[in-house]
Amino acid sequence: MARHAQITQQTGIQVYFADPRQPQQRGTNENTNGLIREYLPKGTDLSTHTANDLNAIADELNDRPRKRLGYHTPREMFASLLLQDLHRVATTP
């Protein structure tokens, strides 16, 4: 996040940095870590897994509906945001 100021300037989105040792400030991150731990327990040697194995886990997580997203999947929400952005670009004079 060395270029967080540039990201904010170009997008208008503020970058938030959680305080150290304050997991309650990183709810989504902590929840995602918990989901990943269902597949890869803490201390798992990732070198024993292929890129295909890890991609399969990522695909499962991205296709899992989330309450926070109105029971849509992260993949659906990402696609929706991309379509909105494409529409915005296409209709901007």
From TrEMBL:
Coiled coil regions in record: none
Gene3D superfamilies given in the database record: Ribonuclease H-like superfamily/Ribonuclease H
Superkingdom in the source lineage: Bacteria
Residue span(s) of domain Integrase catalytic: 1-82
Biased composition, class Polar residues, residue ranges: 1-13, 22-33
Primary role: Required for the transposition of the insertion element.
Entries under NCBIfam families matching the protein: transpos_IS30 (NF033563)
Protein name: Integrase catalytic domain-containing protein
Taxonomic source organism: Kribbella steppae
Lineage, opening ranks: Bacteria, Bacillati, Actinomycetota, Actinomycetes, Propionibacteriales
